[in-house]
Amino acid sequence: MAGEGWQEKENQIDYGEGRHFIGRFNRRYVMQRLLVSVRGPKEALQAVKGGAHIADAEYPASALGTPYPLNLLSVRNSLNRAGYKKVKVSTNIGEKQFDRASACQAALGVATAGADIIKCGLAELPLDAAIYLGETLVRTVKRFYPKKKVIPAVFVDDDMQRFLDAFKEGPMLIRKTSADGLLLDTYNKSIGKGLLDYCTLKDIKAFVTKCHRIKKEAWLAGSITSEELTVLWSTGVDVICIRGAACEQKGKGRFGEVKAKIVTELVRTIRK
Fold first, then answer.
1. Would residue 106 count as lying in a domain?
2. Which domain holds residue 148?
């Protein structure tokens, strides 16, 4: 798993099976994984049959797309029945958190409903407020489910960067909150812009390096296309999150239908 196999060498080495040594400062193996967001059990099975490492239960109408807990439970149960008990299921509690207690209840609720990984949006919060809320979210989930992961999500859109600089302050956020990693995403999915419209590959590589220095995972999302995957994997990122790229129905984007054959092609972009 990611984080194992720390090394002292400086050059990138291929260890096969998607596991790589990345960079001088990272000094770690990275098990790169593809997350596919799914609307329900049917798509979850398609994603996993195609080779997705993480099935992410969401409703694709917004940046993170919060699902109902019972839909999340049905995703988990369907994968278990089909023999995919080891496949991780993720979900989220929304892009914005309006109340600390409610956010913690939501995070604990989806963990109870079957999520192995909980993404917590921290939109429109400055660093200090994000740390204050994030630390409580992590502590709440870990108190009941110490093996489950909590991944704060911050947004790279220009409007969101006014609140928190995802690249400069993001690594400090996850260090201070004891989160398992950080997700960089785009907030506005309706204007035709993706992650690389707001940042450069150099920005992303620096972000990944900072996360790995403190032994945290670096996650990427934001309308990432199939054509962008290869170059994004080269940054050493741990997880890339997609939806539209895995959908068959052209023109419908995020509201298309996830298909196993497409997911298989996307998984093949991970360096072997």
1. yes
2. 13-267
Mean model confidence pLDDT for the chain: 88
Predicted TM-score (pTM) of the model is: 0.88
Dihedral of CA atoms 266, 212, 168, 235 in degrees, nearest 10, equals -30
CA separation for the pair 22, 195 (Å, rounded): 22
| Euclidean distance between CA atoms 173 and 214, whole angstroms | 11
CB 89 within 8 A of CB 79: yes
Q: What angle do CA 176, 196, 126 make, to 5 degrees?
A: 30
Residue with structure tokens 């991970």?
270
Classify residue 179: in a domain, yes or no.
yes
> Mind listing the pLDDT tens digit for each residue in 153-197?
999 998 898 999 999 999 999 999 999 999 999 998 878 899 999
In a domain, 139, yes or no: yes
Q: Please report whether residue 226 resides in a domain.
A: yes
Q: Is the CB of residue 176 less than 8 Å from the CB of residue 213?
A: no
The distance of Cα 33 from the centroid of its chain, to the nearest Å, equals 10
Which tens digit of pLDDT belongs to each residue from 70-106? 999 999 999 999 999 999 999 999 999 999 999 999 9
End-to-end alpha carbon distance in the chain: 16
CA distances from 89 to 14, 64, 137, 188, 227 (A): 28, 15, 18, 24, 25
At residue 181, the 3 state secondary structure works out as strand
User: Hey, is 235 helix, strand or coil?
Assistant: coil
